[in-house]
Amino acid sequence: MAPLIELSDIHFAYPGTEPVLTGASLSLSPGERLCISGHNGAGKSTLLRLVVGLLFPTQGRILAFGKERRAEADFHDVRRQAGFVFQDPDDQLFCPTVAEDIAFGPLNLGKSRGEAAEIVDRVLRQLDLMFLKDRITYKLSGGEKRLVSLATVLAMEPEVLLLDEPTNALDEKNEARLIEILLDLPQAMIIVSHDAAFRARLGTRALHMNGGALAPLD
Predict the structure, then answer these.
(1) Which of 96, 102, 120, 188 is least enclosed, having the fewest CB within 10 Å?
(2) What CATH number is given to the structural domain containing 52?
């Protein structure tokens, strides 16, 4: 089965700095939950941003959903098919209420207000978060924001999920709930996490980022 995402020999450096990635490669197949570990600054978040074209490699090849992606225009449909849950939920949530945040993506994809409202209810029921529907977003706890940011991505019905340190700001109860949710989802995932126990619960395969490249984690 062809990979959904494939990165080959990716090199990247931020302006004026030493290279962050120096030949990183990975592939993600349907149904996989690929976990990536590594120290702070190793390039894990950078790698996720490259997948959806928020950054562009200086060298290497990106294949996503059967096509090579090079220019900005190549990534427009990738961002619809690969849902990126950012490390900081405040980077993702910007509408006054939870319902409006979740409806934002579907409305931008051309859904009617009625269709978007149905999607909001469906996703909130799926995640058992209906009690948050009318809450003011900025007043949510860190854990609630994390779950709502996942809901905003699922509302877009992506084929792949990219999760950057998804357990940040989660207490034990919300982390357990997140694990339960992710295990029930059909999407393939790339999960960046420092949390070894979290990776062990979720991952079907693991890679470690070191020296700008990826290697299997024993």
Answers:
(1) 96
(2) 3.40.50.300
Whether 32 shows a pLDDT value over 90: the answer reads: yes
pLDDT given for residue 174 in this prediction: 86
- In whole angstroms, give the CA distance from residue 161 to residue 172: 22
Class of residue 168 by CB neighbours under 10 A (exposed 0-12, middle 13-18, buried 19+): middle
pLDDT of residue 140: 92
Q: Judge whether 77 and 121 are in contact, CB under 8 Å.
A: no
d(C-alpha 82, C-alpha 37), whole Å = 20
Q: How far apart are CA 168 and CA 190, in angstroms?
A: 16
Number of domains in the chain: 1
**Contact criterion met (CB below 8 Å) for 99 and 133:** yes
Which backbone phi and psi does 24 adopt, to 5 degrees? -75, 135
Q: What is the pTM of this model?
A: 0.94
pLDDT at residue 99, rounded to an integer: 97
- Taking residue 56's Cβ as centre, other Cβ atoms within 10 Å add up to 15
Q: What domain range is 206 assigned to? A: 5-216
**Position 38 pLDDT exceeds 90:** yes
Q: How confident is the model at residue 72 (pLDDT cuts 50, 70, 90)?
A: very high
Q: Residues 192, 45: contact at Cβ < 8 Å?
A: yes
Residues 6+ apart with CB under 8 A from 94: 101, 137
Q: Is residue 218's pLDDT more than 80?
A: no
Which of 128, 36, 127, 155 lies closest to 87, judged by CA? 36
